[in-house]
Design brief:
It comes from Enterococcus ureilyticus. This protein is mainly alpha-helical and about 110 residues long. The protein has three helices and no strands.
Length: about 110
Amino acid sequence: MRKRLTKSPNNVVFTGTLAGIAEWLGIDPTIVRVMYVVASFIFIGSPIVLYIVLAVLIPSGRNRGNNNYGHQNPYNRNTHNPNPYANGQKQRKQAEKVNDDDWSDF
């Protein structure tokens, strides 16, 4: 079974398009990026349009079978400040009752 041409989910600079092409060809992504820059100097303007077209046409390489939206998304994890209330480590502070008829602030 041949590998499908998709954007790279791991090696991304702008959209992962050039890295996806490199993974599909089985070469280092840096080589494809250097070839793209050289082509940009030789064919002025064309590679930019080609990159935009490829970025739109090549499908994403992320696993679509697994729903990676919201809190299950690996890019949406707050690892520096974990939720202290998640596993009962800390009790939430109870809200104080407020009398709605109190207009002393005005």
